[in-house]
TrEMBL record:
Taxonomic lineage of the native organism: Bacteria, Candidatus Cerribacteria
Any one GO molecular function term: ATP binding
A family per Pfam: CobA_CobO_BtuR
Name the UniProt record assigns to this protein: Cob(I)yrinic acid a,c-diamide adenosyltransferase
Biological process, per Gene Ontology: cobalamin biosynthetic process
Organism the protein comes from: Candidatus Cerribacteria bacterium 'Amazon FNV 2010 28 9'
């Protein structure tokens, strides 16, 4: 059995998830069975990629996130139990406890482990798993152990702040660097282009 390849899209720029969506489309067009696991985005969010299943019925979407997660490194203001980040005219809120974020991230990691054991997918996209590892929502060593047992399944991981241990394990790593971003000028993300 040929071992699946591990791809990582990381960095501070826009386009990591978009690149993964491109790989999903290409793999689906080539007849591959594809799964998508989201670590941060909530099922209740009106995110465009959640429509993939209705447009491409052979793709399975698993949405396990609890939304934005602001840890001690985030420049967030604490207002009661809510963390708030302001950028120009934009306000982003994290209402979920760290324990709830960790539980959701761990459940997604356990799902990935189950899917890899079943070996029923040719490609699994792990959207924001890199970020979940770097923000310590999931255990790094446990994640590495699971990724090393990927069998024939190809994996695509996205997220900022990729740890060196993930880079070392990967076959291909691309860094998407921010030069300029509309968000920094207070411009909200555009549905269909950014989410």
């Amino acid at each position: 059995m040929t071992e699946g390849l591990l791809y990582i899209f990381t960095g501070t720029g826009k386009g990591k998830t978009s690149a993964a969506l491109g790989m999903l489309l290409r793999a689906t067009c080539a007849g591959m069975k594809v799964a998508w696991i989201a670590w941060y985005k909530e099922a209740s969010w009106d995110v465009s990629e959640y429509r993939v299943k209705e447009l491409l019925p052979t793709v399975d979407m698993f949405i396990g996130g609890k939304g934005f997660y602001f840890n001690e490194k985030t420049n967030a203001q604490q207002i009661g139990s809510v963390k708030v980040v302001k950028a120009q005219k934009i306000v982003v809120v994290d209402k979920t406890s760290e324990a709830e974020h960790q539980k959701a991230a761990q459940q997604s990691l356990e799902l990935l482990h189950q899917l890899l054991e079943q070996q029923s997918y040719d490609l699994i996209i792990c959207d924001e798993l890199v970020q979940a590892v770097s923000q310590q929502l999931v255990n790094k060593q446990q994640t590495l152990d699971i990724l090393q047992k990927r069998g024939k399944t190809h994996l695509v991981l996205t997220g900022r702040d990729c740890p060196q241990s993930l880079i070392d394990l990967a076959d291909t790593v691309s860094s998407v660097e921010k030069i300029k971003h509309a968000y920094d000028q207070g411009i909200m993300a555009v549905k269909g282009l950014d989410f």
